[in-house]
Amino acid sequence: MSHAVSACEARQLVPRPARIAVVDDDASVRNAISRFLKIANFRVDLYARSIDFLESLDRQRPDCLILDIHMPTLTGIDVMEYLRASRIDFAVVIVSADDEPGMRETCSNLGAAGFLRKPLDGDLLLEIIETARNRPLRASVPHH
Q1: What's the pLDDT at 136?
Q2: pLDDT of residue 141
Q3: What is the CATH number of the domain that holds 31?
Q4: Which residues are registered as beta bridge partners of 96?
Q5: Is residue 52 part of a domain?
Q6: Where are the alpha helices (DSSP H) in 27-136?
Q7: 88 lies in a domain?
Q8: What is the pTM of this model?
Q9: What range defines the domain where residue 122 resides?
Q10: Residue 9 lies in a domain
C-alpha cells in the first residue's frame, strides 16, 4: 500500500493562513494594521469603505473582520447590524479612537469579539483574533 500524498491532499493538510479583512477610512491605520498582520502570517484584505467590504462578501468571507466604528456613510455599527441580520458569521473586532459611553455594550450586543482603542496594542489584537477565531460569534466582548 502506498503512502504517497497527492498535491491536493498535501494542500489540505497544511493549514492556510487566516484571512483578515480590515475596514478603516484612514489609510495610515489600514496600512499599519496590514503590515503587522502580514508579519504575523495572516492574509489581509483592505477596504477604505464599508460598502466595498460588504460587496466583497459575495466573492469571499474573511475569518475575522477588524472594523473601525466611525466610518463615513455606513458606520461600523451599520456593518455589524447588516452582518447580524444577514446571519453572516465571522469574528469582528471593533477599533475606535474614541471610547464613547455605551459603545462597547452596543458592539457586544451585536456580537463583536473585541473592542480596541487606537492606537492599537498589536499583541492584544493578535490575542483577540486568535481567541475570536476559536469561539462562536456573539460571546462577550473583552474590554481593552
Answers
A1: 54
A2: 43
A3: 3.40.50.2300
A4: 117
A5: yes
A6: 27-39, 50-56, 76-85, 103-109, 122-133
A7: yes
A8: 0.83
A9: 17-133
A10: no
pLDDT along the chain (144 residues), means of 10: 48 70 97 96 97 96 95 94 92 90 91 92 92 61 45
- Number of independent structural domains in the chain: 1
Which pairs from 129-137 meet CB under 8 Å and 24+ separation? 129/18, 129/20, 129/42, 129/64, 129/91, 129/93, 132/64, 132/91, 132/92, 132/93, 133/18, 133/63, 133/64, 133/91, 135/91, 137/89, 137/90, 137/91, 137/92, 137/111, 137/113
Q: Please report whether residue 83 resides in a domain.
A: yes
Q: By the 8 A CB rule, do 94 and 114 touch? A: yes
Please give the grid coordinates belonging to residue 70: 466611525
**Nearest 10 degrees: CA dihedral of 90, 95, 99, 102?**
-20
